[in-house]
Structure formats: structure tokens, C-alpha cells
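Data availability (excerpt). The following record was deposited with the supplementary files.
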Amino acid sequence: MNIPKPTQSTLSTLSTLPTHTMANIAEGAARSSKKEFIQFLYIALGSLSELETELIIAKNLNYLGNNGDNIFLKLENIGKMLTGLIKSLQSP
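Predicted structure:
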């Protein structure tokens, strides 16, 4: 099977999505209300999900090599931390 090489667009997407996730967390933390912070945390979760989708595609195309499982484990842990932070901010 001839595996295509990752395109510049693919590499760019994979490098910018983690940055978007972090930037949304930082921007939300700088907002003046808890409600806005939570909204940005949900946006960060969306970026994380988008990154996961791109990584699933990369894994299926054998771009990740042996690092795939470790990357997905880290994504899962980050998602759990974000979800936990949202829940703690939503509790009275």
C-alpha cells in the first residue's frame, strides 16, 4: 500500500489546534466572569475534539508511528481535566 506523505495543510492543522486549545483557556481565564470562562473552556474542548479527529485520520494513514497510543492517552487526560475544571466552576 502506498501511503501518502502528510501535506503542509495537515501538518499546519496538527500544529495549530493545540495552540487554539491553550489560547481559548487563557482567553477565558482573562475574562471578567465565570460564565465567559466556562464558555471558552467549552470552545477549548471543541478544539481538542477537532485535534483528536485529525489525529485519528493521521493514525489511520500511519503518520503517527508508535506514538499514536500515547498521544491519544494524553488527549483523553487533557479532556478529563478540562471537563473537571468546567464542573468545578459550575458548582455553587
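Summary of structural features: The two ends are 56 Å apart (CA to CA).
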